[in-house]
Amino acid sequence: MNAVLRDKVFMRLLSPDGHELPVLAHLTYDVRDPYAVTVGFTHAGFVYAEWRLDRDMLRDGMAHEVGEGDVRMWPVRNGTREELRIELLHAAVFTVWAPSLWRFLARTYERVPAGQECLEDLDAFLAELLAAG
Q1: What is the pLDDT of residue 78?
Q2: d(Cα 23, Cα 90) in Å, to the nearest integer?
Q3: How far from 87 is each of 11, 50, 51, 71, 95, CA to CA, in Å?
């Protein structure tokens, strides 16, 4: 079984002046870190930003507002499009088409169902996580 799932989705970065910039986001889910989805923003092979977001928070944010502090999410409608709005650090605001995100999340829940998340080797996981930071 492949321990890592990957996909790409287009997101829109919303600027304070109302402009929208399309950005390609790389989604990664690693069963060794079953609570998180990593969203990476890249261009020309360079990683400009990477965020580790709570998997359940992404799912729940498509139904109602979740989060407080540095990360908040809530559902929005853009015409007929159902989207998830993600606010990071009260500064960056992104939207993603909810059905494309849900397809990726559904695959993660097939691999590791909700409530069955487990960190088998917590010490090794923390060492790897801290080394990457």
Answers
A1: 86
A2: 19
A3: 13, 14, 12, 6, 9
Tokens of 49: 């930003």
The amino acid at residue 117 is: E
pTM of the predicted model as reported, rounded to 2 decimal places:
0.82
Is there a contact between 5 and 111 (Cβ–Cβ < 8 Å)? Answer: yes
Which residue is listed with tokens 């321990």?
3
Question: CA end-to-end span of the chain, whole Å?
Answer: 27
Distance CA 26, CA 67 (A): 22
Q: Which helix (H) or strand (E) holds 109?
A: helix 98-111
pLDDT of residue 99: 96
Whose tokens are 């088998």? That residue is 120
pLDDT at 103: 97
Q: Which two tokens stand for residue 132?
A: 């990457």
Strand locations in 55-107, DSSP E?
Answer: 66-68, 71-78, 81-88, 92-97
What is the reported pLDDT for 6?
Answer: 96
Token digits for 10? 């287009």
